[in-house]
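>> Question from a student workshop board

For tomorrow's exercise we were told to take the sequence and the ligand below, predict the bound structure, and bring the output to class. My setup keeps failing. Could a helper post the expected result so I can at least see what it should look like? The ligand is FE2/S2 (inorganic) cluster.
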Amino acid sequence: MKKHVVLNVNGEEHDIEIEPNRLLLHALRDDIGLTGTKEGCSIGVCGACSVTVDGRLVSSCLTLAIACQGKEITTIEGLAKDGRLHPLQQAFLEYGGFQCGICTPGQIMAAKALLDGNPNPSEEEVKEWMSGNLCRCTGYYKILESVMAVVQNKVRTEDLLPRERIEARIQSLDVYKAEARTHGSKSHG
Ligand code: FES
Ligand code: FES
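>> Workshop helper replied:
Here is what the output should look like for this input. Compare the format with yours to find the bug.
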């Protein structure tokens, strides 16, 4: 039987009617409409569904929504503030920390949870912490570089950019140019 549940997500309350076994992942995406949190493995292995609950990093695919009542849930949609990207979002953009983007919200939420507790981790500490977040595209180095750019204060957050400028910025990154060259040579080969 469905229950009435109030979830506080990114500072806003959401009243929803859900089954007691509804997972937080599905409540966020399908009942509340916040689709930034992604579903990968569905069994707590890949980290794509990472969010924080009262500041603690959790896999939303393993967390019951009903157990999160009265707690503060933060998702990727809650990071940009006052028209500015969170420094981690800016860093992933500037340093090419993503390709397909499926793992990216989870990567950023995991990195945020780390830096909230330890703003100055070593590269080894970042690697170890982020080892619970799998990526099938980047080879991980760009993710590490993005997080370390924030640790080393190399990132300046800008006003939220219009979509066309973000796309142009992504296409200007060396890693994507190399990718385009590879595909271009294949199609002409
Ligand atoms: S979808 Fe939750 S850990 Fe993979
Ligand atoms: S960017 Fe594609 S899985 Fe990580």
